[in-house]
């Protein structure tokens, strides 16, 4: 399990990131004393650092150089500043990537994963594969597979994304907008009809696993995964 | 010369009166003098006056030339006018005015500068609370969360507009021209604004060849695209419509066209869409309209050396074209 050090002076934002990242199986440590970020880094044994630029006492660039002098671990900047100059500054001070506020969780997660993959090798070689569990269902988002008891089914990438969103919020409604947002493609707009097609496919896959009717349509709102409701 | 003569006119009149006084005195006292000696005296005296006036004119020439047509000499305003007492005094006066003016100008520039700095800091400060609201809303489920997300999107766009508007004043230090892939810039901007498309049920269609590149600043281009796309989606007028972004080359130029199927713009509004704060009849129906989007697009185009054109068929749609000078194929 990877440890992520969160250096962000807004306690609320740090807390939100912590909650989100632990949901995806990361250990997180939040820095509380901003006069000794380097000590906190060394104590935590972090595998990756999320670093804000505007910090009390010294700025993020300073701490980035300090950490760089002791470790090669990936450092991701999180900052409200978005000019090219700031990004250049960050990279020149030893950062690996730059995320601008306001950001979405998925962006942070995707960048963390890509850095970890690059530095510590691919997930396939990791002893622990990322899994999403929801009742008797287990999803393996990295190899697009879903398991229910003894049965396993292969998924496409889109089906996996859909199921992951539904499983993470099991029992609660996931809005159509949210699902369309997650499934957005580079070139094409995924319209309602296409979403229906994907939902139908997911239902068929679940049926193969004897988990019929687990995906409920909530009229006018979206979809809900309800394992308990399934026979 | 004309001004000089006008200034010296009282002297000339005074002199003429003097010249008449002497023969008058002779005549009154009855002292008969031949006319020739009187004329000789007058001529001699006039010659001395001419030398005096000529000398005076030469000493003050620069001053009079400049006073005659001040506009023509704005560029050389700081050139000294000469070393005669009057030009020197004028020089001094101008210098004092000039210094005062420059001081005020400098102060004004500093004021604008510190205002821009404040705006930038402030916008950046607002981004952390915005992140928190956005992330908190992502965790919520009900319809209220969707509405919060929508408002957060609008706040984010509003802040961005403030930031870019204030950056426009410092454009010289804030751009770099590079070859930019149009396809990449457009699809990333569309993806960034995908929630808007989804919410309005408007489809996006991108028809741009992979190889098409233009010389521009990527950041400003994306800002312009976001403005135009937001307009296109907001004025599409309902779900099921499509916004098409296409690019093609025409001679040396590359044209990027963003076309919607919306209600269009009436011919009388068409002339004013690029004016700042112009929102038009339709604009007032959308809360988002600040009337600044297209104005900023035109200003940015001007600075980057691109052109922007807009055409519209009421009831059929609007198309905005960005025209780039020369592309790379």
What would you say this structure looks like, in words?
The complex is a heterodimer of chains A (231) and B (329). Chain A has 231 residues and is α/β, with parallel strands linked by helices. Chain A contains 8 helices and 12 strands. In chain A, the strands form 3 sheets. Chain A has a 5-stranded parallel beta sheet with strand order 2-1-3-4-5, with helices on both faces. Chain A has a 4-stranded antiparallel beta sheet with strand order 6-7-8-9, with helices on one face. With 329 residues, chain B is α+β, with helices and mostly antiparallel strands. Chain B has 3 domains: 1-79, no CATH class; 98-169; 175-325, Heat Shock Protein 90. Chain B has helices spanning 2-29, 35-68, 85-139, 143-168, 182-192, 194-200, 218-234, 267-270, 280-283, 293-304, and strands at 178-181, 203-207, 213-216, 242-250, 253-259, 307-313, 317-324, 327-328. The longest helix of chain B has 55 residues, at 85-139. Chain B is elongated.
Instruction: Please work out how many helical segments of chain B DSSP would assign.
Output: 10
> What fraction, in percent, of the residue positions of chain B are helical?
55-70%
Strands side by side in the biggest sheet of chain B: 2-4-5-7-6
Tell me which protein chains meet in the greatest interface and how many residues each side has: A-B, 33 and 34 residues
**What is the 3D shape of chain A?**
elongated
InterPro entries (chain A): CheY-like_superfamily, OmpR/PhoB-type_DNA-bd, Sig_transdc_resp-reg_C-effctor, Sig_transdc_resp-reg_receiver, WalR-like, WH-like_DNA-bd_sf
Modified residues (4-aspartylphosphate) (chain A): 52
Protein name (chain A): Transcriptional regulator
Organism (chain A): Paenibacillus durus ATCC 35681
């Amino acid at each position: 399990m990877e440890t992520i050090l969160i250096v962000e002076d807004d306690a609320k934002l740090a807390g939100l990131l912590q909650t989100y990242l632990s949901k995806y199986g990361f250990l997180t440590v939040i820095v509380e004393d901003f006069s000794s970020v380097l000590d906190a880094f060394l104590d935590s044994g972090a595998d990756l650092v999320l670093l804000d630029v505007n910090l009390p006492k010294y700025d993020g660039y300073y701490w980035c150089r300090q950490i760089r002098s002791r470790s090669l671990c990936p450092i991701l900047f999180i900052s409200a500043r978005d000019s090219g100059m700031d990004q250049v500054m960050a990279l020149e001070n030893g950062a690996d990537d730059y995320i601008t506020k306001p950001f979405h969780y998925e962006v942070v997660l995707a960048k963390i994963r890509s850095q970890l993959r690059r530095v510590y090798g691919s997930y396939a070689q990791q002893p622990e594969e990322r899994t999403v569990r929801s009742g008797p269902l287990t999803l393996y988002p990295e190899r697009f597979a879903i398991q229910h008891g003894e049965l396993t089914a292969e998924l496409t990438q889109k089906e996996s994304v859909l199921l992951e969103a539904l499983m993470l919020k099991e029992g609660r409604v996931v809005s159509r907008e949210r699902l369309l947002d997650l499934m957005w493609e580079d070139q094409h707009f995924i319209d309602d009809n296409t979403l229906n097609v994907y939902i139908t496919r997911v239902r068929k896959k679940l049926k193969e696993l004897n988990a019929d009717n687990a995906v409920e349509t909530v009229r006018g709102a979206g979809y809900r995964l309800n394992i308990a409701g399934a026979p | 010369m004309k001004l000089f003569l006008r200034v010296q006119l009282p002297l000339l009149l005074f002199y003429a009166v003097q010249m008449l006084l002497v023969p008058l005195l002779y005549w009154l006292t009855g002292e008969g003098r031949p006319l020739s000696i009187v004329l000789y005296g007058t001529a001699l005296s006039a010659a001395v006056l001419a030398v005096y006036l000529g000398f005076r004119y030469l000493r003050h020439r620069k001053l009079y030339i400049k006073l005659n047509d001040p506009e023509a000499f704005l560029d050389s305003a700081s050139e000294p006018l000469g070393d005669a007492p009057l030009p020197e005094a004028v020089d001094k006066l101008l210098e004092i005015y000039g210094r005062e003016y420059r001081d005020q100008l400098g102060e004004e520039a500093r004021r604008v500068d510190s205002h821009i700095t404040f705006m930038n800091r402030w916008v950046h400060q607002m981004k952390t609370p915005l992140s928190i609201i956005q992330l908190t809303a992502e965790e919520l489920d009900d319809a209220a969360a969707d509405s919060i997300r929508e408002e957060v999107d609008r706040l984010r766009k509003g802040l961005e507009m403030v930031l870019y508007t204030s950056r426009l004043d410092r454009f010289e230090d804030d751009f770099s021209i590079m070859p930019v892939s149009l396809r990449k810039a457009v699809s990333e901007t569309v993806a960034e604004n995908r929630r808007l498309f989804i919410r309005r049920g408007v489809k996006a269609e991108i028809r741009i060849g992979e190889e098409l590149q233009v010389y521009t600043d990527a950041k400003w281009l994306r800002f312009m695209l976001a403005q135009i796309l937001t307009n296109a989606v907001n004025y599409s007028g309902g779900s099921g419509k499509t916004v098409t972004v296409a690019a093609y080359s025409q001679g040396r130029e590359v044209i990027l066209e963003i076309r919607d199927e919306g209600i269009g713009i009436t011919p009388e509004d068409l002339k004013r869409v690029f004016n700042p704060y112009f929102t038009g009849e339709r604009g007032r129906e959308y809360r988002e309209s600040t009337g600044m989007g297209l104005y900023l697009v035109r200003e940015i185009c001007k600075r980057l050396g691109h052109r922007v054109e807009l055409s519209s068929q009421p009831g059929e749609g609007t198309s905005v074209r960005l025209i780039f000078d020369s592309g790379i194929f």
